[in-house]
Specification:
Length: 124
């Protein structure tokens, strides 16, 4: 597929996705970025790729946090609290991986992202 056609497809896909599908897709992308770093730990551009992947994850989880604290967020209070607590854990893992990088430190973030993505991608 040519690059213009591919970009048109990606744009159309984003427009037609539901919110849950988009969140699932973004979480999966975030997990795959980290998994790539984990699998290619000895690459010379690891630090650049790792920084990019961690910052991408950080942005996603910050966005979730800002959406969850909005007074008009329709999710049940307990679910919002659980996701916010999970986001605090993720923040800690991200900062730890930024400060003291090690491939095993990425696994918890990868697992959580993929599990949430799978849950969001399931039946509405």
């Amino acid at each position: 597929m040519h690059s213009a056609q591919l970009e048109a497809y990606k744009t159309t896909q984003k427009i037609t996705m539901t919110g849950r599908e988009l969140e699932s897709s973004v979480l999966t992308k975030a997990a795959l970025k980290l998994k790539h770093c984990q699998n290619n730990w000895d690459d010379e551009d690891r630090n650049t790729k790792l920084d990019e992947a961690l910052k991408y994850n950080q942005k996603i989880w910050s966005l979730f946090q800002s959406e969850l604290i909005k007074p008009d967020n329709p999710l049940p209070q307990k679910l919002k609290e659980d996701i916010l607590n999970l986001s605090i854990f993720i923040d800690g893992r991200i900062f730890e991986a930024m400060t003291y990088p090690a491939p095993e430190k990425l696994q918890a973030i990868i697992n959580i992202n993929l599990n949430l993505a799978a849950g969001l991608g399931g039946p509405a």
